[in-house]
């Protein structure tokens, strides 16, 4: 296993790359939060440490990383387990995990393809309509149907039915336009491998930019508990987005809450493993 002197310069390089802090501030006793490392950044740092030293830091270990020294100790005293290999369908490399960037970048390509198809369909439909219209006009002109005086259609002699009284329908109350919209939550994957990241995103329409949100998790038969990841509202529309991963297998429920405002999103279920 690497020594603390081996890990320290590598960890300094990773922290500076992720949060942009001063390398001189990265000391063993320095707290990660004071350096600008939030709950998502610490996951990224743990992943990069694992890649550099060919090891895998478990969720419980990552949750206990509070100082630079904690991160160094986690690598030096690591038991030696390797990260599980995630499975990704639809990629040329069968062992490659689709990153959130790949999933996100695929969407615009599909939207552009759909727009091209819709445009081609509209132009083709317009052309076919013009051809049929001109052909129909030529047919009417050739047969003389357009100038033929047809006899008027006789009015029916059937007596008009006696109208029956109808009940006046009671108008339904209009929806309350002042009601506040509910928070939303969308998940990028419903089944992932242990250690594979997936995205949680949605909106808290009534919250302002910068309000902190808490991710919560619930296992079967248990109560909701705080997951070690927080995020913030990104803009005035209440939009938020974060990425998480977990090595615990089985069906796990997730949701996002704002405790001070007593707001919560609907829950989503993810199959781990």
UniProtKB/TrEMBL annotation:
Keyword field contains Chloroplast: no
Pfam families noted in UniProt: PP-binding
Residue stretches spanning the membrane: 117-140
Positions of the Carrier domain: 5-79
Region described as Disordered: 149-184
Superkingdom, natural source: Bacteria
This protein's UniProt keywords: Membrane, Phosphopantetheine, Phosphoprotein, Transmembrane, Transmembrane helix
Listed name of the protein: Carrier domain-containing protein
Species the sequence originates in: Aeromicrobium terrae
Organism ancestry: Bacteria, Bacillati, Actinomycetota, Actinomycetes, Propionibacteriales
